[in-house]
Amino acid sequence: TDKKKLIAGNWKMNGNLEANDALVRALVAGMKDAACDVAVCVPAPYLAQVQMLRHGAKLDLGAQDVSQHASGAYTGEVSAPMLREFGVRYAIVGHSERRQYHGETDTLVAEKAKTALAHGITPIVCVGETLAEREAGKTEEVVKRQLAAVIHVNGHCISEIVVAYEPVWAIGTGRTATPEQAQQVHALLRKQLAAATGHAGRVHILYGGSMNAANAASLLAQPDIDGGLIGGASLKAPDFLQIIAAAS
Ligand code: 3PY
Hints:
Blueprint: E1 6-10, H1 17-30, E2 37-41, H2 47-53, E3 59-63, H3 80-85, E4 88-93, H4 96-101, H5 106-118, E5 122-127, H6 131-135, H7 139-153, E6 162-165, H8 179-197, E7 205-208, H9 216-220, E8 227-230, H10 237-246
Parallel strand pairs: 1-2, 1-8, 2-3, 3-4, 4-5, 5-6, 6-7, 7-8
Helix pairs in contact: 1-10, 5-7, 7-8
């Protein structure tokens, strides 16, 4: 399809006021000719700072998580309505680091996606298999189960989600899926979305997992890879800008 690609940075728990200032200014200056959509998913305390810095630019703002609840006695959580007040357009849900270190289940991830959508935030739903699951031949089963949990909660508004395929063995390890390995899973996910919605062509399926300036072009050339969710390389302006250029 001819939809624009989406390049989203996932800063994870990195950054500080000074570094963010330099990074976002460099991005805003460097992406004037970008023909793709670009977002940065920043730690919650920096949303206001980045919202101000990107003022007037095409750079969209994202959060890295969102509560499944809209408000209430949930100490430490951040709600979708709060994120909206800072101009947040996207929220990552179900990143493998949250599934692994914070015990997030398919059901919880689906509830978070549903709450985000209800408040006008597009969830970036992460799916991906571990190395053990891949080696046991379970990749398809795992990613389908993870995506099904979200689709079946949100059957009517599935076209408003973004999916990110992030093989766990390629996250923060420097190992990347080959373009062919990634394409194979993206095609499966597209088929699953098509069966559920009838218009899967509109849904962005991003690749994540050590996408960087050197490998972005070959991954983005695959027919079902509609963009990237970028970890470490999103913290370096020249690298992130190179990925944006590869997607433009
Ligand atoms: C990575 O690239 O390592 C990521 O986890 C992106 O979300």
